[in-house]
Amino acid sequence: MHSLYNDILIQELKKYRDKKILVAFSGGKDSLMLLDFINKQKESLNIYAGACHINHGLRHTAKRDEDFCRLYCIKNNIDFYTYNISEELKKDNSGGIEASARKYRYKFLLHTVKENNYDFLFTGHTYSDDIESFFVDLYTGASLFTLGGIMYENDKIIRPMLNITTEMVNEYIIKNNLEPVFDETNNDIKYVRNRIRHKLIPVLYDCGNEFEKSVIKLQKESNRLNEYLYKKVKHVILKQDSIVILKRYSFIELEDIEKEYLLGKIFSLFFRVSKNILHAALSFLNNDDSKRLDLPNGYMIEQSYHSIKIFKKILISDYVYNKPAGISLFKTDDFQIEFFNELKDKTIIIRNRNKGDKFGRKKLKDLFIDKQVELFERDRAVIIEENNVIIWAEYISKNNNIIFKRYGI
């Protein structure tokens, strides 16, 4: 076995001795080398490995790839999992098919990790992929602080082959008589990454490989800048999970480069970030109005009284529920309402607000504004209606016959 890639991977795998590893297995040469190498070293390192294949259903050879992966795992006594995400991609590709495929691929991979008690997910990203990604990011308008390259570790996702080159992979495949599948779309230069791989990078290598050192140096400088800027802006982040909330007035006090960095870092959690998206969002936040701006992948950014929020549009979808007479406790995933006395015995409508709603003699919108209720909360606010008359509104009302409790957001 080639001593260099052997030494590199052995040193990487030693970090995960006694762990249970799931390998993202496409059947291509990179993931095949990774899985094959781990499988051959599993006893000496006491590593347990399984494999998960995601069938995107986008190519006529997708079933061939899935069958190859399954057969390889059967022959090598490796636990195998597979998911077909073609239906998910048909329903949701608003951010582009590549972004949606990545989103659902990792969703199902990480689901498999959790459901089957794996410690980590390994992917086959290589040194060559990292170099390519630098130029893809550069081409698509990335900022200086987002040129740091592919992360080695991101929560449970580990990329142990980032010091392995394509040449090393090819040598391993040949020496071990492996026959990986080939994704025909890898030669299709309508994709940016493929144009860079087949058109740009060969020209750079014709001039020597010194450019690699320049790329790595710039990636390291980008990461240093990233770490420095995060320390400067982290106090602005109030909440970061399914919805990100920033302190609006703290954000306003940031320098322009700090604002751009913070938005770029947050946006990158949800979609591929470009200069155009960042500049549109920064321009949007430059005035005092309470308003919203659409973002890729079904996200929105909202500026309101005291906060800036980034969230999925679905979180402010309309809803209408009917509480039948005789029911005292009404529950959803987001809230519960307990009704007492005569309200328990009445049919009640529970919904969010409609345009033109009135509560008493005043417009509900004006009451929310008077209370400085933020846009996001207004659109999610629970409205209780009886006989087409609003009798209670979240953030506005007090009623001894209604006890309301909201969960989570």
From TrEMBL:
Annotated positions binding ATP: S26, G27, G28, K29, D30, S31
Q: Which reaction does it catalyse?
A: cytidine(34) in tRNA(Ile2) + L-lysine + ATP = lysidine(34) in tRNA(Ile2) + AMP + diphosphate + H(+)
Which Gene Ontology CC terms are recorded? cytoplasm
Q: What keywords sit in the KW lines?
A: ATP-binding, Cytoplasm, Ligase, Nucleotide-binding, tRNA processing
TM ranges = none
* Compartments (UniProt record): Cytoplasm
Q: Which GO terms describe its molecular function?
A: ATP binding; tRNA(Ile)-lysidine synthase activity
Any GO BP: tRNA modification
A Pfam match: ATP_bind_3
- According to its UniProt record, the EC number is 6.3.4.19
SMART domains found in the cross-reference section:
TilS_C
Q: Could you tell me the superkingdom of the organism this chain comes from?
A: Bacteria
Q: What biological function has been recorded for the protein in this entry?
A: Ligates lysine onto the cytidine present at position 34 of the AUA codon-specific tRNA(Ile) that contains the anticodon CAU, in an ATP-dependent manner. Cytidine is converted to lysidine, thus changing the amino acid specificity of the tRNA from methionine to isoleucine.
Comment, domains: The N-terminal region contains the highly conserved SGGXDS motif, predicted to be a P-loop motif involved in ATP binding.
The molecule here is called: tRNA(Ile)-lysidine synthase
Provenance organism? Mucispirillum schaedleri ASF457
